[in-house]
Amino acid sequence: EELLQLAEAMPKAELHLHIEGSLEPELVFQLAERNGVKLAYSSVDALRAAYAFNNLQEFLDVYYAGMSVLLKEQDFYDLTWAYLNRVHQDHVVHVEIFFDPQAHLERGIPLDVQISGIRRALEQGQAELGISFRLILSFLRHLSEDSALETLELARPFYDQLDGFGLDSSEQGHPPEKFARVFARCKELGFRITVHAGEEGPPDYVYQALDQLQVDRIDHGNRSMEDEVLVQRLVGAGLTLTVCPLSNLKLCVVKDMAQHPILSMLKKGLKATVNSDDPAYFGGYVNDNYRALIQHLPVTRDHLYQLARNAFEGAWISDDEKEAHINELN
Ligand code: ADE
Ligand code: ZN
After folding, report:
1. Which of 17, 71, 291, 315 is most deeply packed, by most CB within 10 A?
2. pLDDT for 90
3. pTM for this structure?
4. Nearest CA to ligand 1 atom 6
5. Which of the residues 199, 228, 321, 328 is marked catalytic?
6. For ligand 1, is residue 247 a contact (CB within 6 Å)?
7. What pLDDT shows up at residue 330?
């Protein structure tokens, strides 16, 4: 109880959040009505009932269908503004969010519509809620590297509105090495990169992310725990892992929360952090993720501080900003 209060009240950073995954069923229906989009579900409850997944792909199918209601700049704004107001309640003070432009380009939504709506909300969140932000363009790994390269080229007019690049979607069969050229180009352009690796994919995909992409962070990284040499490399490099407990539970990456590896990760010296991934689909925002950990694992005060500190240390902000946030924790 006391731990839960501490976790809830701590100022926090969220580093692994797909903005399209914060699309709540209520907003899906509101936007469908506003945009005249026909849905395959008759009610909010019917849609929510479809949120049961056995693996990543089953979730992704529902996730890409859900975002079909996002058409206008205002829709991207409303989505992002709803997320910021929600996490403000959780005492989140810094967010680094992904968006999936290829999923919208495929539906004919121009990149400037997407970026402008998302950023208008982010800037308002900074001004009115005091939430600082970074925006990360994430490539879809089930598509080709050429499609990612095209998207990177299309984003050229917006490079000053982007802070980094990511890689998400179906992991198995789409290893990081498939995108070696595109991420080399991102690095040449001076961007930071972070890729989903070791969520469902093997430890080898995490090695590839390190050796072939030179990533600055790893998203998830759970399966690194199967390889002690890899763990020691990640520890040595001080690489941040953006771990997502409720996501891992809902996508059956872990059998139950009591078996979640996050405390073992901390014990080994890995810089694990707590994130919500796709909160509308996985049953909760950042504080809900902390609550689940506290309920099912022997979490201590020190663990909570460590997790919160890791997130600020792994954030793409200046050392002074990191220090200021970390001082607020103590
Ligand atoms: N896209 C949105 N959430 C994702 C996740 N957890 N893994 C891979 N791709 C995603
Ligand atoms: Zn993710």
Report:
1. 17
2. 98
3. 0.98
4. 277
5. 199
6. yes
7. 83
- The continuous run of DSSP H or E covering 288 comes out as helix 286-296
Specify burial of residue 318 (Cβ count, 10 A radius: 0-12, 13-18, 19+).
Answer: exposed
3-state secondary structure of 189: coil
DSSP 65: H
Question: From CA 23, how far away is CA 91, in angstroms rounded?
Answer: 20
Does any ligand 1 atom lie closer than 6 A to the CB of residue 217?
A: no
- For this complex, say whether ipTM is above 0.95: yes
CATH architecture of the region 2-329:
Alpha-Beta Barrel (3.20)
**What does DSSP say about strands 192-197 and 217-220: parallel, antiparallel, or unpaired?**
parallel
pLDDT at 199 over 90: yes
What are the tens digits of pLDDT across the range 300-327?
999 999 999 999 999 999 999 999 999 9
- Look at the chain and count its residues: 330
195 phi and psi angles, rounded to 5 deg: -130, 150
Q: Measured from the CB, is residue 22 less than 6 Å from ligand 1? A: no
* Residue 199 known to be catalytic: yes
Residue to substitute in 220, 252, 278, 289 for testing ligand 1 pocket (most ligand atoms within 8 angstroms of CB): 278
User: Quick one: tokens of 164?
Assistant: 């980094």
Å from CA of 168 to ligand 1 middle: 5
